[in-house]
Design brief:
The structure is a homodimer.
Chain A lengths: L7 H6 L10 H9 L3 H12 L3 H14 L7 E6 L6 H14 L4 E6 L3 H4 L11 H4 L4 E4 L7 H17 L4 E6 L5 H6 L4 E7 L4 H4 L5 H4 L2 E5 L6 H16 L11 E4 L8 H17 L2 H42 L5 H13 L6
Parallel strand pairs in A: 1-4, 1-5, 2-3, 2-4, 5-6, 6-7
Helix pairs in contact in A: 2-3, 2-4, 3-4, 3-8, 14-15
Chain lengths: 347, 347
C-alpha cells in the first residue's frame, strides 16, 4: 500500500495524479465488499473540508449505516509512555490469530498541528500494519476535538460496514479526548504503567472512573513484581470509585506486549464484559444514548461553526466590547444571535 | 425584610399585592445608591422568564456594568457536610467587622427541583442575614446549569454596582457547578473536612486543581489534631498538582467556624493572593478571559435554547431516526440546522 493511499493529497490536491472520484454506488458496494482502497478514500471524504466531498461522504455513510454496528468497539487510553502502540500491536495480532478483523483508529486533537498523528503512524505498529486483517488509520486532523471525534466516529461505521468486527479507538491520553472516545465505544480500557505515580495517570483526571477494564502494562522481566504491586494498589483504588451504570465491576489485569503474557486474558475479559452487557440490554441502551449524544454534539458544533463562519468580524467587535466592560455577555450574545438568524441557511 | 421580598411571586404573579414595576432609571439610581429592595427586585428580573422582564433586566445590567468590577470575588466549594454555611456565617461576620460589605450568592443547579436553594436559606446564616452589610441571595432556579450560572454572574455585577465589595459565590460541591463558579471568581477556595476520604472530596473530581486556597474546616476541640494531619496530607497532595496559571502556589490552612480560629488568616491569604495577581496583571487577564468565556457560553446557550424551542417536535422525530440507526447523527443535525435557519429571528 503506497504511503499516500487515502491521504488528502492524493484525493484533493491531485498534485501527483488526479484520481477520478468513484460514484456513490461504487463506494458503497466497494466498502460492503471489504475493498480497503475504497474504504480509505471514503474516510478521506469524511475528513475533507470540501462541501462536495462532505456531501458524498454523508451519502456513503447513510447507505453504510444499516450495515454497521456489528463490531466490538474498544476504547484504549493511557498516558504517553504507557506503551499503547506496543499493546495494540501485540493485542491486534492476537485478535487476528483468533480470526478477527481489526480496525485501529486514533483520536488525537493535537494532530491539527502535526497534520497526522504520531500515534497512528503505521511504523509504530509494524507487523500489524502489514496484515490484511488489520486496518490502521491515523487521527483525522481538525480544528476542534469535537470535529476530530465526529470524523472518527463516522469512520467506525464505515469500517464496520467493510467487515471489521473489532474496532480499537486509541486516544493520546492527555486532555479531553478520553471523554470523546468514551462516548463512541462499548468498553473502555485504561492502560497504566507501574510506578509512574498512579494518581497522575488517571485517578486525578477522572479517567479511572470511566474505565471498564484496567491493564498494567510492561509486566515482564524485573518489572513483573512492580506491575503486580501496581495491580493490587489499583484494585484497592477502584473500590473507592462510584459503581458503573453498566452494573459491571472494573477488572484489573497485568500484561506484557513484549512476552504476550496476559494479552489473551484481556481479550477474554472484554468478551465477558460485552456478553454480559448484551444480555442485560445495557449495550443496546448505551449505543442508543451515544447516538443521541452525538446528535446533540453535531447540532451544537454545526450551529456554532456556522455562527462563527458567518459572524466572524461582528463577533470579534462584540467580544472587544464585552472585554472592555462596555456590554454584558448576555446582551452581546443576543445581538449576535439576532444577526446570525438573518444570515443565509446552510447547505 | 419579608420572606417574599424579591421573590418571583411578589413580582410576577402579584397574588398578594400587585407591585408596580419601577422604570429603568429608578432601578439604576436605586441600585447605585445601595437600595437593597431595588437590587433584589432587579435580580428577580434577571431570574424571570418573562420577555419584558428580561428586556428590562438587560437594560439595568448594561447601565450598572460600568459601576461593577470593584469587588473581590471569592468562590467557595466543598462537599455537603464540610460546613460551608457555618464557614460563610463566621467568615462573613469577620469581613463585616473589618468594614466590608458582602454579598453571598449560590449556584445550585438542583434548585430547579426544590424551587430555591437549601444552601442559600437565610436560616442557615442567621446572624449574617440580619446584618445590613450582608446581602444573601439563594440560587436562582433554572433548567440548566449554564442558565443558573449566567444569572448568578449577572447578579454579581448588580451587587457590585450596589456597593458590595466582597462577593462570596458558594457551590453545592457536587457535579459540575464548580467549573461554573470558577469561571466567575477571582479566587477559588476549597473547603475540606478531615477524615472524610480526601480523594473523594476533591482530588478525584479535579476540583483540587482549581483551588487557589484550601481550608480544612472544623479544626476545633478533639478534631484539631485530625485537621492538622489532614492539612499536612493536603499540602503533600497539592505538590503533585500542575502549577496554576496565576503563578501562585495553593496555600493550605485550617479553620474553625465555631471558635473563629484561622478565619482571619484565610482572609489575609485571600488579600495577599488578590494583591499579587493584581500586580502581575493576572487578575485583569483572568477577568477578561472570563468575560470572553461567558460571551461564548451565552451564544451557545441562546442558540441551543432557540433551536430546541423552535424545533421541538422535528428534533424528536430525527432523534428517533438516529437512535434506530436510520440516519447518521451528522446528517440529521444538518437537516435540523437547515430547518432552524428558516425559523423566525429571536427577540
Amino acid at each position: 500500500m503506497p504511503a499516500t493511499e487515502g491521504s488528502d493529497e492524493s484525493l484533493v490536491r491531485g498534485s501527483v495524479k488526479k484520481k477520478i472520484l468513484p460514484d456513490l454506488e461504487t463506494f458503497v458496494q466497494g466498502i460492503l465488499a471489504g475493498d480497503i482502497v475504497l474504504l480509505s478514500r471514503a474516510i478521506t471524504l469524511i475528513e475533507s473540508t470540501l462541501p462536495s466531498h462532505q456531501e458524498l461522504a454523508e451519502a456513503i455513510l447513510e447507505k453504510c449505516l444499516p450495515h454497521s454496528g456489528k463490531s466490538v468497539r474498544v476504547g484504549i487510553t493511557g498516558i504517553p509512555g504507557v506503551g499503547k502502540s506496543s499493546f495494540i500491536e501485540t493485542f491486534g495480532n492476537h485478535l487476528i490469530d483468533k480470526g478477527r478483523k481489526i480496525a485501529v483508529l486514533t483520536i488525537d486533537p493535537s494532530s491539527q498541528l502535526s497534520k497526522g498523528s504520531i500515534l497512528g503512524d503505521k511504523t509504530r505498529m509494524e507487523t500489524l500494519s502489514r496484515k490484511k486483517e488489520a486496518f490502521i488509520r491515523p487521527s483525522p486532523s481538525g480544528d476542534s476535538l469535537g470535529g476530530v471525534a465526529r470524523k472518527t466516529r463516522e469512520t467506525i461505521f464505515l469500517c464496520e460496514a467493510a467487515g471489521f468486527d473489532t474496532i480499537l479507538v486509541e486516544t493520546v491520553g492527555v486532555g479531553q479526548s478520553e471523554t470523546a472516545v468514551y462516548s463512541m465505544v462499548d468498553i473502555f480500557l485504561l492502560l497504566l504503567i507501574a510506578g509512574a505515580g498512579d494518581e497522575l495517570q488517571g485517578i486525578k483526571r477522572g479517567i479511572m472512573e470511566m474505565a471498564d477494564l484496567i491493564a498494567i502494562t510492561k509486566a515482564d522481566g524485573e518489572n513483573t513484581m512492580r506491575a503486580n504491586r501496581a495491580k493490587s494498589e489499583t484494585i484497592s483504588a477502584v473500590h473507592f470509585l462510584p459503581s458503573h451504570e453498566s452494573g459491571m465491576k472494573t477488572e484489573v489485569r497485568t500484561c506484557s506486549a513484549h512476552t504476550g503474557e496476559g494479552i489473551s486474558e484481556i481479550w477474554s475479559e472484554i468478551q465477558t464484559f460485552i456478553s454480559a452487557i448484551k444480555e442485560t440490554g445495557y449495550l443496546d441502551k448505551k449505543r442508543k444514548e451515544q447516538a443521541k449524544h452525538w446528535l446533540h454534539e453535531s447540532v451544537q458544533a454545526m450551529l456554532l461553526d456556522d455562527f462563527h463562519s458567518k459572524l466572524g468580524e461582528e463577533f470579534e467587535k462584540e467580544e472587544d466590547r464585552v472585554v472592555q466592560g462596555l456590554s454584558g455577555s448576555y446582551q452581546a450574545a443576543r445581538k449576535l444571535v439576532q444577526s446570525y438568524k438573518k444570515t443565509d441557511t446552510i447547505r
